[in-house]
């Protein structure tokens, strides 16, 4: 699991069934995972033994097609939900999840905790594994049900 302690307890207070269609929820979860990984690559690059830059790049290369597909799903969802204002709303959403990840990245032990996540992600076989893995993140469910739909 990605979270423990107070952060995990906080996510359990959020409703378990988001109002979004399933593909949108899955796209949000994958985007949350991707955001967490990029934040870790940036936050941890100066930490001895925790420079995840090459692992993040390997993740993007390995999953470029599903990441693009998920980005398009999110764009379509925001376009349908917000019309002409969809890009502003999508940018706000993306900024919010990046800021949330950045705050977690400041915590003690963050880089150490992210190391096995990178290993797990890079061991995934394909898009269905990526989706399943990202859906298992309790933080993903909390954020998507709070913010995106």
What descriptors fit this protein?
149 residues, mainly alpha, disordered N terminus, disordered C terminus
SSE string, helices as H and strands as E: HHHHHHHH
Unreliable spans: 1-18, 144-148
| Beta strand count | 0
Distance between the termini: 24 Å
Helix/strand-derived category reads mainly alpha
Strand residue content: under 5%
The total count of helices amounts to: 8
Q: Round the Cα radius of gyration to an integer and report it.
A: 15 Å
Structure description:
The protein is mainly α. The protein has one domain. 74% of the residues lie in helices and 0% in strands. Helix 2 crosses helix 7 and helix 3 (53-62) runs parallel beside helix 6. The longest helix has 22 residues, at 22-43. The protein is globular, with a radius of gyration of 15 Å. The two termini are 24 Å apart. The relative contact order is 0.23.
Provide a concise account of the structure shown:
Helices cover 74% and strands 0% of the residues. It has helices spanning 5-11, 22-43, 53-62, 64-82, 86-105, 110-122, 127-135, 138-148.
Ordered list of secondary-structure elements with their pairings:
Elements: H1 5-11, H2 22-43, H3 53-62, H4 64-82, H5 86-105, H6 110-122, H7 127-135, H8 138-148
